[in-house]
Write a structure and sequence with these properties.
Layout (H helix, E strand, L loop, with lengths): L15 H28 L3 H4 L14 H8 L11 H31 L5 H10 L6 H14 L5 H25 L3 H9 L4 H9 L4 H16 L3 H6 L7 H10 L7 H33 L4
Helix pairs in contact: 1-13, 3-13, 4-7, 4-10, 4-12, 5-7, 7-10, 10-13, 12-13
Length: about 290
């Protein structure tokens, strides 16, 4: 069987443009990875070695003592229980906040895409407007509202805050994604007698896997890394990991334990990193699918 050979001149192996691209990529990689490398190396060194100032060098005396202290015994203010307390608080905040914001956002996007209710575009515009207003503007009104309802400084309060502020972005993502699906699927389900909820759970939601992954990554990252909402609405018993990390860094008396600070920072960043590494392929696919229509 004859094969068709490519026409034209063979491209040169190394060009000025290609060298520039490689140089840019290398610089960007160093810019991102060098601080990470320094954090990891510092967390694995004892303080005697850190005082020498060789922050980039490999540890000569490898130790995980700083990681153990950061997790279980570092002081986060008046208590010295480590960052583990904040970790489990963040998990308790994260799971319901992510689940509720995604399912409500998916339902909103589904309703705005397939059920042409009167005033849907106006409702979507008003909802989307909230995504562009700085959230600091809403802090004091929300504090007053939650105080009057009696749920301020509680786990329910911080979960509701994350759901509320996640809805505009989640609705936009799912609406754009559903607009790219064939309308014939929805019409066929309607002809077969499907209602609002049956079509959503049996037809639309099973086709939403790429966007569900994207939404999960965005919400997990945003909620896990949140500081201001956790500090304002969670209450002393539910402070998330980021607030505890800030307390560890600023509660040191005497010599600052840089290895403990770096270990605590790495522990706080593990969950978003794991989520990105596990589902990065789906993230790119879902973003591309959600950008088809607007």
């Amino acid at each position: 069987m004859n094969t068709i050979e490519p026409q034209g001149c063979r491209p040169r192996r190394l060009t000025v443009g290609r060298v520039g691209v490689y140089a840019f990529l290398l610089t960007a990689a160093l810019f991102i990875l060098l601080p990470l490398w320094i954090m990891i190396m510092t967390s694995l060194k004892p303080m005697d070695e850190i005082r020498l100032g060789n922050i980039v060098a490999l540890p000569t005396a490898l130790t995980f003592e700083a990681w153990s202290k950061a997790w279980s015994s570092a002081c986060t203010g008046l208590e010295c229980n480590g960052i583990s307390v904040g970790f489990w608080n963040s998990v308790r905040i994260l799971i319901p906040s992510v689940a509720l914001s995604i399912i409500v956002g998916a339902i909103n996007g589904y309703a705005l895409s397939f059920w042409r209710v009167k005033g849907a575009n106006v409702m979507f515009g008003v909802l989307l407007l909230g995504a562009f207003i700085p959230y600091q503007v809403f802090l004091y009104p929300l504090v007053r509202i939650f105080s009057m309802t009696g749920i301020y400084n509680s786990l329910l309060c911080i979960i509701l805050v994350h759901v509320i502020f996640g809805l505009p972005t989640m609705t936009l993502l799912f609406r754009n994604y559903y607009l790219g699906l064939p309308i014939e699927l929805f019409k066929a389900a309607r002809i077969d007698g499907g209602g609002f909820w049956s079509i959503f759970f049996r037809v639309i939601l099973p086709m939403s896997t790429p966007m569900l992954v994207v939404a999960t990554i965005l919400q997990v990252t945003g909620i896990w890394n949140d500081f201001i909402f956790g500090l304002t609405f969670a209450g002393r018993q539910n402070l998330p990991m980021t607030v505890q990390l800030n307390n560890i860094v600023h509660s040191t008396q005497g010599e600052r334990a840089y290895n403990v600070d770096m270990a605590a920072t790495m522990l706080a960043a593990l969950v978003p990193l794991v989520v990105y590494f596990v589902s990065g392929r789906w993230f790119v696919r879902g973003i591309a699918a959600g950008a088809v229509k607007g």
